Description:
By secondary structure, this protein is an alpha/beta fold. The protein has one domain: UDP-N-acetylmuramoyl-L-alanine:D-glutamate ligase. The chain contains eight helices and nine strands. It has helices at residues 20-30, 58-71, 85-98, 120-128, 141-148, 155-168, 211-224, 229-245, and strands at residues 6-14, 34-46, 49-55, 76-79, 103-105, 136-137, 172-175, 184-191, 195-201. The strands form two sheets. It has a six-stranded mixed sheet with strand order 3-2-1-4-5-6. It has a three-stranded antiparallel sheet with strand order 7-8-9. β7 (172-175) and β8 (184-191) form a beta hairpin. α1 (20-30) packs parallel to α7 (211-224), α2 (58-71) runs parallel beside α3 and α5 crosses α6. The two termini are 18 Å apart.
Amino acid sequence: MQPKSKILIIAGSDSSGGAGIQADIKTVTALGSYAMTAITAVTSQNTTGVKSIVSIEPKEISNQIIFTSRDIKPDVIKIGMLHSSRVIESVIKSLDKVKVKKVILDPVMVAKGGAKLIDDRAIKLLKEKLIKKVLLITPNIPEAEILTKTKIKSKEDMIFAANKLIEFGARNVLIKGGHLNSKIVQDILVSKTDIKIFSSQRYKTKNTHGTGCTLSSAIATFLSCGKTIKKSCELGIKYVNSAIKTNPRYGKGHGPINHLNTMSVNRKFR
């Protein structure tokens, strides 16, 4: 099997392997594409919480993005954890240089255990500048609430918040509805001209660490293979749901999902 496309992932490292750059690489690989990385931070964490975050110098983040892209041009760029305004400024400048049209932003702000991963100045810069550079932004409800300064308690609130992000300059917004207390999970894709609601069964499990990272990378991979934004979101959500359903039950806290749910081992390697 040959890789179908090339994805550059700009994100932080999760030492537990469930989220961040580790989840991104697993997702892109499991879906048949080639993953490249620019690491923005190194976190020490496990399924029970985050112990520490060490920033990578913005200049080195920029070097990773530009030097990698000059040799192997990515079809899509996926952006995850950008925890400071200096990092965001560096990424914006790098995006202007590499000129990749399809960029997906997962605005990672809060860890599954509740730890804040981004400072207030960074949030402001993300909202005012970075959001205008991307094709799709994929916040969950807490992230959408932070970005729009609104409370989200319903499907209608999700659509309202998505439209506020459109007003800020976003082209397409996928708000993930997993934080609402309902039997059916609704993820809502909003553009200037269309609204699409994806409904999924809710699985009763605490093992959902890295679902946001995984979904945005899955969407980036399907998009890189020529699928539309709407179809990429649909297929990405299906992949994540399957990964949640088959999660390996690792760890004492919020465990990882099963990124290998699409794969089988070739018997010739026995």
